[in-house]
Amino acid sequence: MTMNKSPTKGDTPSKLIDARIKELNDWRGEMLSRLRAVIRLADPKIVEEWKWNVPVWSRDGLICTGESYKNAVKLTFAKGAFLDDPAGLFNSSLEGNVRRAIDFHEGDKVNATALKGLVRAAAKLNASKSK
């Protein structure tokens, strides 16, 4: 698959995410794949979706999106400003009132334990708002 070819609309969200990872074909695809695995391990009830032409992970509402850029893979947490981040993972979109993001660059290590904690906290926050 070439970089310009978008995944096919008729595919399932998981297949679209698989296609995006394959399409990136460099460290960004590997990073997105790693981040996806951590998110899925954090909570098996998380649903993968495809919105705004990017991977989206939800449970009782949007948890985060996974965008890829030339120099970063960005996880944007929809309600990140309301989450405790004891490990200091959030390093982008810090000035916003609602969203917070984590930019991962080539060679960055993924703190899986801290990331799982953020994902679980986001799911818990969504569940508390959906009742």
What does this structure look like?
With 131 residues, the protein is of the alpha+beta class. It has one domain (13-130): Aspartate Aminotransferase, domain 1, CATH 3.90.1150.200. The protein has helices spanning 13-24, 27-42, 112-130, and strands at 47-51, 54-58, 62-68, 73-77, 100-104. Helix 1 (13-24) runs antiparallel to helix 2 (27-42) and helix 2 crosses helix 3. The chain is globular.
Short recap of the structure:
The protein has 131 residues and is α+β, with helices and mostly antiparallel strands.
Order of helices and strands: HHEEEEEH
* Rg over alpha carbons: 14 Å
Strand neighbour order, sheet with most strands:
1-2-3-4-5
Helicity range of the residues? Answer: 25-40%
Question: Which architecture name does CATH use?
Answer: Alpha-Beta Complex
The CATH class name reads: Alpha Beta
Poorly predicted spans: 1-6
User: Got a strand count?
Assistant: 5
* Tally of distinct domains: 1
The helix/strand class is alpha+beta
> Outline, from the CA principal axes?
globular
Secondary structure elements and pairings:
Elements: H1 13-24, H2 27-42, E1 47-51, E2 54-58, E3 62-68, E4 73-77, E5 100-104, H3 112-130
Antiparallel strand pairs: 1-2, 2-3, 3-4, 4-5
Helix pairs in contact: 1-2, 2-3
